[in-house]
């Protein structure tokens, strides 16, 4: 498996470290990531975490912008200035720094959520609330699509 899938909640230890779930560490190892790149998610209180390919993807997007316009500058500030590298210790743990805590609200536990090519770190109750919102949005989309297809069949 070479994708970040599923979710897990792990407790932060007395030294401020948290174990990255074993199945996530296996993906990190398979992909050959030495360090993890973490970026504060723009629209939710979570961190997006992945390898240098995540950073590369963002930089490719920046390269599409006119370098003299504010959008390129803002993107660079966000991607390069508001990110951080996270290092694993020998036991597969990362330190939960102020960089992580300030944006996410994480205190005692960390929820890890697979997002395919990257994963996110959340405060568990915030993740639960966000998950409920996501399911509601998807349900409304499904209901709207169903109503449209029923309406098309009656004409």
CATH architecture: 3-Layer(aba) Sandwich
Q: Roughly what fraction of the amino acids lie in strands?
A: 15-25%
**Helical percent range?**
40-55%
Number of strands: 8
**CATH homologous superfamily title:** Transcriptional regulator MraZ domain
Domain count: the total is 1
Number of helices: 5
Structural class: alpha+beta
Strand order of the largest sheet: 1-7-8-4-3-5
Main beta sheet, described? 6 strands, antiparallel
Task: Give the terminus-to-terminus CA distance.
Answer: 47 Å
Mean pLDDT: 94
User: In the CATH scheme, what's the topology name?
Assistant: Chemotaxis protein chec
The oligomeric state of the chains shown is single chain
The gyration radius over C-alpha positions equals 18 Å
Provide an overview of this structure.
The protein has 155 residues and is an alpha+beta fold. It is 46% helix and 22% strand. The chain has helices spanning 22-31, 52-63, 70-81, 98-104, 124-153; strands spanning 7-11, 17-19, 36-40, 47-50, 83-86, 93-95, 109-114, 119-122. The strands form two sheets. A six-stranded antiparallel β-sheet has the order 1-7-8-4-3-5.
